[in-house]
Design brief:
Number of domains: 2
Helix content: 25-40%
Bound molecules: 4'-deoxy-4'-aminopyridoxal-5'-phosphate
CATH class of the largest domain: Alpha Beta
CATH architecture of the largest domain: 3-Layer(aba) Sandwich
Largest sheet: 7 strands, mixed
Distance between the termini: 41 Å
CATH topology of the largest domain: Aspartate Aminotransferase, domain 2
Strand content: 15-25%
Number of helices: 13
CATH superfamily of the largest domain: Type I PLP-dependent aspartate aminotransferase-like (Major domain)
Number of strands: 14
Radius of gyration: 21 Å
Order of helices and strands: HEEEHHEHEHEHEHEHEEHHHEHEEEH
Shape: globular
Structural class: alpha/beta
Strand order of the largest sheet: 4-10-9-8-7-5-6
């Protein structure tokens, strides 16, 4: 018995992927000149596989704010929020996000991943029941594992299955926490939040929505899918991240619940880790301002999303959802997916390769995501690259 025995099947699996071309799990961005232009293998490449939905990573005001904060407050806080790691900026950002989300309590975490871990494990304990959409992100699963609650999965995007499973719990007196996402990151589909909110009310449960991919993307104020669907009052906890529309790193939990503030003292991934750096805080403050004041960014994102979705549909790719900023094309098998992913890079386009165990039902996907920063010409080039790949890949078919 060896500690590493469990890795025995990995070398073959790894080899079956990298032998087809590049290593998709560690692509080096050798240079990055804009939210949509990078250099990979010495070649100018269009980035069509990041979550930079509003294209704010190179926003001049955000960069300047970050530089000023770096000079004024130093490189890091070197402490937890509950010790020496709460600077003026952390409080300012919590206030800003509270206004942006129109929710009184905001708790910032170092990543979106930790926001989910900390909020779920902080809220749910022994005797409580968590009901999660089967396709929820890994960090929601990990948050459930970290809690001592009973975890019940319901069928992806099925309020009927959720209702059935809640009914099966009977009149049990346990607290029930329903967890789902706004925009799902693999297929680019969205949760039926209105129907889920109806089920929540029927069963007197709490509702928790991870809006990591939907803040800045959906709703008149960019608050997420719950805003767009008119159900913000039904959502007890919203979790978001700074690593997508806000173009930085960090995460948050937002709530209108009067006692949510106490999560700060019950959430280990909040208490036992250093807080995010002042420079990061400053970039997010500026980006949040843009989400509020520049709805044209959202409009541009949606124009680009429709452009790419229409283009790939016309080429005959099997897409996993209706129009959204995540446009996933289903591939027949892993080998074809890896080959197509390499061929797209040969054409100067980077998208994400999604293969098992990272996909919900073991599918293989080419996952593109759009940004407000893509020009219409870049979207055309992406479509042309997919067209070339479609022609080329047929050569490899037996
Ligand atoms: N929630 C969802 C739905 C995600 O897709 C991700 C990461 N892509 C996270 C949370 C974690 O966010 P972060 O990368 O900021 O840790």
């Amino acid at each position: 018995m060896d500690l590493f025995d469990k890795f025995d099947n990995l070398p073959d699996r790894y080899e079956s992927i990298v032998s087809l071309g590049r290593n998709p799990f560690g692509v080096e961005m050798e240079d990055i000149s804009s939210p949509t232009q990078v250099v990979i293998d010495g070649k100018k490449t269009i980035l069509a596989g990041s979550h930079n939905y509003l294209g704010l990573t190179f926003d001049e005001e955000s960069i300047k704010a970050g530089q000023d904060a770096l000079a004024q407050y130093g490189t890091g806080t070197t402490g937890s929020r509950i010790a020496n790691g709460t600077f003026k900026g952390h409080k300012e950002l919590e206030k800003k996000l509270s206004e942006m989300m129109n929710l009184p309590t905001i708790i910032i975490y170092p990543t979106g991943y930790q926001a989910n871990l900390g909020t779920i494990a902080g809220l749910a304990g022994a005797g409580d029941t968590i009901l999660i959409d089967a396709d929820c992100h890994a960090c929601i699963y990990d948050g459930c594992a970290l809690s001592s609650a009973t975890v019940v999965r319901f069928r992806h995007n099925s309020p009927e299955d959720l209702d059935k499973r809640l009914s099966r719990l009977g009149d049990e007196d346990s607290n029930k926490l329903i967890i789902t996402e706004g925009l799902f990151s693999m297929y680019g589909d969205t949760a039926p939040l209105k129907e889920i909110a109806d089920v929540k009310r029927k069963h007197k449960a709490y509702l928790y929505v991870d809006e990591a991919h939907s803040v800045g993307v959906y709703g008149d104020h960019g608050r997420g899918l719950a805003e767009q669907d008119g159900v913000t009052d039904d959502v007890d906890f919203v979790v978001g991240t700074f690593s997508k529309s806000l173009g930085s790193i960090g995460g948050f939990c937002a709530s209108n619940h009067p006692k949510a503030e106490y999560l700060r003292y019950a959430s280990r991934p909040y208490m036992f880790t250093a807080s995010i750096s002042p420079a990061t805080i400053a970039t997010v403050l500026t980006a949040a301002d843009h989400i509020e004041k520049k709805p044209e960014l959202r409009e541009k994102l949606w124009r680009n999303a429709k452009h790419l979705h229409d283009g790939l549909s016309e080429l005959g790719f099997k897409l996993c959802s209706t129009v959204s900023p995540i446009i996933s094309a289903e591939m027949p098998d892993q080998e074809t997916a890896v080959r197509c992913w390499n061929l797209l890079l040969d054409q100067g386009v980077y998208v994400n390769l999604a293969i098992p165990p990272g996909t919900p039902k073991g599918e293989c996907l080419l996952r593109a995501s759009m940004s407000a920063a893509h020009s219409p010409e870049e979207v055309d080039q992406i479509i042309e690259a997919y067209a070339a790949v479609k022609r080329d890949v047929n050569k490899y078919r037996p």
